[in-house]
Amino acid sequence: MNQGASIMRKHLQRFISLCLIGIIALTAFGAMQSHVEASPETQTGVGFIRFANATVTGGDVDVYLDNRLIANKLFNVVGYFTFYSGDHTVVFTTPAGAEIASATLSLANATRMTATLIGAGADSQVVVTVDNAAPPVRNLTRVAYVNAVQGSGDQDIRVNSESVASLGFGEVSEAAEVVAGSYSVALGSSPASDIVLSPGRYYLVFFVGDSASPAPRIVQLTGRPYRVSGTNRFRFMNLVDVPEGAEQVTYDVYVNADPIAVYAGIRYGEATNEVVVTPGNYTFEVYATGTSPDGGTPVVTTTLDIAEDQSLFMLLTGTPEAVSLDLFADDLTPVPVNTARLQVMNLTSIIPNFGLVSQNGITLIEEVSQGSLASANVPGGLYDLTLVDASDPSATVGRAEVNAPAGSIATLIIYGTDRQRWTWFNEPVEQVASVRFAHAAPDSPSLDFYLNGDLVLNNLNYLDFTDYLTLSAGSYELTVYPGDVTPAEGVEPIWRDQLTITANNFPLTLVALGTDNFRVNAFADNIELIPLDQARVRFIHAVRNVPGMSVINSASGDVLAGILAYGQGSDNLNLNANTRTFNFSDGQGNVYYRIESFELVKGNYYTFIVVGDAADPTTFGYILIQVQP
User: What is the Cα–Cα distance from 182 to 160, expressed in whole angstroms?
Assistant: First the structure.
């Protein structure tokens, strides 16, 4: 860490109680222009969209929203992402980039929607539904059905042999609240399939196939309702093992002698929705389904205090003859903007110690020992994880998938005694905004940066940059002074600007530019999950006396960035990870600088701030800011 960043830590407590975070924890969706922009007036709020693949063949697809990659190689469902309210365009493509189908949707504030690709080939289409996420009545659940059988006409939806709706291809039934439990469902005259609807949730049930299919397959999407505001909460999961081939036992949970179960019929491997409570003392009694406090005996009982801002995850483990209750506490501290917290529980004896590696080959967590929980902040996105032996990372011992949308805690549980099993779920968590600083102003002195009059960075030298500083969302006055010159001495700042930063914005890099015409420009950092075997690259023009800068791939001659004005940044470019030479030319095509044989490592995000003065070629160089999301 350079001197400026070190001193930033020294003074940070005067500004905010949050701390500096490491670069690796940061991520963001999309790219922005090179100036800080307030949200457009039409963006009055945010909503939530998830994406699903219910095609006939079920092959992998990529999902783009407003030309930004949201999900890579989606084969089932990816959980809710946060977007500004307003009109959006969703496009499903093949992994090679060929468009399959698209749709435009209008996202209202605080609304949840699902965009699902159905059909096959030319008959593919995107079905967009508005998800009713209001909590259903206790022990009820909410369900809607979708006809995704390609080539079918109007078909009756039969539930327990009774027709509940008539749907054509791509049509969706009205959502209805029903008693939680097992149901037999069928489309038209096809054979019935059994589904299980858990209490306190909402479901989209797709009948998937084509008109030649003897029986459509069922694709069942589920979600948890909006919670009551509060961070004091609990939930349960049933991991009570029985011998292979034996019938699994379900369990009911009663709290503080309430005669009605808070949770009913928790199946093996199922995690419940959360219950928000006030801080205090609670007694939990767990009964095998079919027994109750009215004459029955609980299989396990515990009394505990739930503190302010405490989220408890209670796991039923052991065997039906000896049920145990294990407690884990979620880490609810805020995450950086557009980042998720990945929590991993190792509850299987099959793999005593394992690490987690992403699809890009990046180690996310080095070790999770049996019976423990480990966590890491990761870029929001869909992960195909490899489990490796913690003592020998070259040895693969399993795999798992988890959706970790930005602004969520994604909990992955590895369990099972006879074989490895896994499940995951999400819950929202507060995000904080983030900025970092870079000094690309030649001949300028070291710089001090103030936000709302508080010194946050002291003596940042030319060509230096910092880690990210976390901020509370809000408006800030940015003022910049020569190093060690304080406002109290009556010196006017050399730069003053107003920043509006929210947790829904992207992390920002603030770059000091120029000398005679000093300025600070803001660049949005796109550190979202990077596609497999690629790296992300961005270029910023900070060379004086060069009116326009183009970036050219030396090997192919391809123009990676068009003519950039001084102080302007390129788009964020996803490039194949390999060794490249970048040529930098002026507006007349004359190459004035070259970065030779630079190795782009997959999964890394590179910002090149090209600096110098055309009047003196010896000053050419670049500031490299490298991040591994």
Answer: 10
